[in-house]
Amino acid sequence: MNPMGPLNVSLKSGTEPFHCDGQALPRTLLNFWQWTSSDLVNNALRGVLAEYLVATALGCDQQPRQEWDAYDLVTAEGVTVEVKSAAYIQSWSQQDYSTIQFSIKPSLGWNATNNTYSPQSKRQADIYVFCVLKHKDKASVDPLNVSQWDFYIIQTSELNDRLGRQSTLGLSSLLKLNPIQASYETIYSEILERMSDQKEL
Q1: Is 9 a domain residue?
Q2: Which of 35, 48, 102, 132 could form a disulfide with 84 if both were Cys (CB 3.0 to 4.6 A apart)?
Q3: pLDDT of amino acid 19
Q4: What DSSP string runs through 20-65?
Q5: Are 122 and 75 in contact (CB under 8 A)?
Q6: What is the rounded CA–CA span in Å between residue 97 and residue 166?
């Protein structure tokens, strides 16, 4: 066993206490989560939340999220998935709704297991899922309500063929690529169907 290999991280419950050499302090991990992660509309945390929504839809949320891996998720069938998110509403004061835009920049994929980078800059995953928090009322926006989201699915090969090495993609341009628009409940089946169609080509 490599003593400097990757940490074996397991899901936490939230009840784990902060402590001083075993002496419990009056705060738990849940308190930390509440302090750091209550603003779900925040654009940084919203991206992680979108990943989690897709992970739960795909049934691959039993292991902790791997930061900075080459792709965000892997299905039981081995399909690799990149999740991108955007929203009209932000946490801060706005003069107008935000423009929906996603990063699709090719990258050198990093392997967390052996701390190496892939030799070729490319879009690493098989499938992209673009998640749009479409709700436009600040008083009632609720990122936990999956009906306030739109999910668009497109194969990476289509992005490569149509857009080359383009680094960003707006919503109107995405829609011109004719992605599959899925509900939360149909994300999994739509991904499997799209990948199955590719294998038959």
Answers
A1: no
A2: 102
A3: 97
A4: ETTEEEEEEHHHHHHHHHS-TTSHHHHHHHHHHHHHHHHT--SS--
A5: no
A6: 24
Give me 136's structure tokens: 């436009």
SS3 of residue 109 by DSSP: strand
How far separated are the first and last CA of the chain, in Å rounded? 43
Positions of the chain with pLDDT under 50: 201
> Do you know the residue count of the chain?
201
Residue 97 CB neighbours (<10 A): 11
Range of the domain at 88: 39-200
96 by DSSP, 3-state: which?
A: coil
Per the structure, how many domains does the chain have?
1
Residues 142/135, Cβ–Cβ less than 8 Å: yes
Q: Say which residue the tokens 């289509």 belong to.
A: 158
In a domain, 30, yes or no: no
Q: Which residues contact 137 (CB under 8 A, 6 or more apart)?
A: 89
CATH number at residue 106: 3.40.1350
